[in-house]
Amino acid sequence: MATLRKSCRSCASSKRHCTVQLPSCARCVQRGLTCTYDLQPLSGADADEKCSASLLLKGIGFDTTGYCLLDRAEAYNKHFGNNLDPSFCPPGHNEAQEIIQQCFMNVPEMVTSLRPATFIHPKLQIRTGRSYLSMIRSPLDSAMSLIDLQTLAEIDVGAVPLEEELTALQALLVFAAPLSTSEQPVNREIAEPWLKVAEIWAQHLLSIVSAEILKGRTPWQQWLLAETIRRTIVMAYVLICCFNAWKHGYCSNWLLLESLPFDSRPGLWMAESPQAWIAAAGSGTGKKVGTQLTSLHEFGGMMKAVDSTFCGDTFLSMMAMAHNGSAALPNDSN
């Protein structure tokens, strides 16, 4: 690898030690900072070596799932040319499993205790179709999860109401997540086709959502339903991306995940009454709360300089981690 003359701009301006390396120094990677060197390398690497995937995957800047795909692509283009796919990452990385575990593993307990989970809210009213959330038990049993998945397999999502499809996708994610991180290889093999089903269902759910589903609901219930749909779709792709990154070292859905929106205002999701919801938004009435959508990429960029516990909202803290790495979380959240 080429040798650089001096510290990067970020370390130099902060008067911090810089472990010089391409494409980003260790400090900038850990803190999610843009790493720029003022001087060019003293000696350049061979062009073929620059394009070596094995060399690329050894770089500390690319050894984490929690690293913005767009920032990664920018670094690729700058230092390695534009012929490398930023969806590559080393397989078997622990952070991918950690994201799955923290996003999904406490969901059964939260659901059965009627508390807000990462993407399932106990106060959302399911008015049409069947709710499959009643299938979720705590603790989950892998054998029962397989039986429950077979029950879900019989659903034709194109023939059921949107709210029924929503709860079916939520239940599928809850049952498939622990299988995907199981220590038993056979369970991980079983999980993989179910993640493909989750992707198809998430795509279908996204394609049929319209404002019509919100009619006849209170402002709080409108927001809850819309945000539940958004979070469920995001979580489907979080599970898919993390599993594929961990197992295969590649996932083609990262860019889509970066673009998915959600309401990032802390406290709104954790509210369990319309009054608490209005108070969390700092609004006088429910109609004034509205919806303020932020893509994962925008949210991750804002969170690079913010130390927040997100009012206990695991979804928001995990989205910060998924985008920026575990260093993005406040100390009491690690």
Task: Explain what the structure shows.
One of its GO terms (molecular function) is DNA-binding transcription factor activity, RNA polymerase II-specific. It comes from Karstenula rhodostoma CBS 690.94. It is a single chain. This protein is mainly α and 334 residues long. It has two domains: 72 residues, no CATH class; 240 residues, no CATH class. The chain has 16 helices and two strands. Strands 1-2 form a two-stranded antiparallel sheet. The longest helix has 30 residues. The N terminus and C terminus are likely disordered.
Outline the fold blueprint.
Layout (H helix, E strand, L loop, with lengths): L8 H6 L11 H6 L15 H4 L2 H6 L10 H12 L13 H11 L2 H6 L29 H12 L8 H19 L4 H24 L10 H30 L5 H6 L1 E3 L10 H8 L4 H4 L3 E3 H8 L10 H11 L10
Antiparallel strand pairs: 1-2
Can I get a quick summary?
With 334 residues, the chain is mainly α.
Distance between the termini: 33 Å
Strand order of the largest sheet: 1-2
- Share of helix, binned: 40-55%
Which regions have little confidence, pLDDT < 50, spanning 5+ residues?
Answer: 1-5, 39-65, 330-334
Mean pLDDT: 80
Largest beta sheet, briefly? 2 strands, antiparallel
Number of helices: 16
Compute the CA-based radius of gyration: 21 Å
Beta-strand content estimate: under 5%
Q: How many domain modules? A: 2
Keywords summarizing the entry:
Zn2Cys6_DnaBD; 16 helices; DNA-binding transcription factor activity, RNA polymerase II-specific; 2 strands; nucleus; 52% helix; disordered N terminus; two-stranded antiparallel ribbon; 334 residues; 2 domains; zinc ion binding; mainly alpha; Zn(2)-C6 fungal-type domain-containing protein
